[in-house]
Amino acid sequence: MMGAGSSVDVDAGTTPASPATQLRAVAVFEAGKGVVALLAAGALGWFGAPRLQQGVESVAAGIGAPLDGDRVAWLARALDGGTLDLVLAVLLVYAALRFIEAWGLWRARGWASWLGCIGAAMYLPIEVRELWRHPGWLPTIVLAVNLAVVWVLGRDCLRRMRALPG
């Protein structure tokens, strides 16, 4: 039993990850997001607009949603060829940005820390609003991970600014 003034031994082998290790962890996370975007683009391209429209209608019918309802009709109309091409282009650009950022973070480039920090911080107000409106474990995890990314990258940016001469 521990009395007042007693101390707890901390395992000396457990040390926080170095800043370089943290940057590489964020790099792997960003590359993973790029892979997911490429997989989504590939799946959407493979299915094509007609199959996606049929899929939306089948799912709506399966759950008893009216096929002429506002949301179902809007989604089915939105999945035309031109819209799908735009979505595919956005997914490919997003994936390219994630891979470029991951490459830069893996090599500890300052521009990558800035890019990632600003990009991740832009999502914070949206994520806080979503957590407020729809509390649950998923928005909590998303916000926590994004805060950790902003923390790691922001700290790297500050470290680099302090190291500048002048």
Automatic annotation (TrEMBL):
Highest rank taxon of the organism: Bacteria
Stretches that traverse the bilayer: 74-96, 108-124, 136-154
UniProt keyword terms in alphabetical order: Membrane, Transmembrane, Transmembrane helix
Pfam families: DUF2127
Listed InterPro entries: DUF2127 (IPR021125)
Protein known as: DUF2127 domain-containing protein
Originating organism: Luteimonas yindakuii
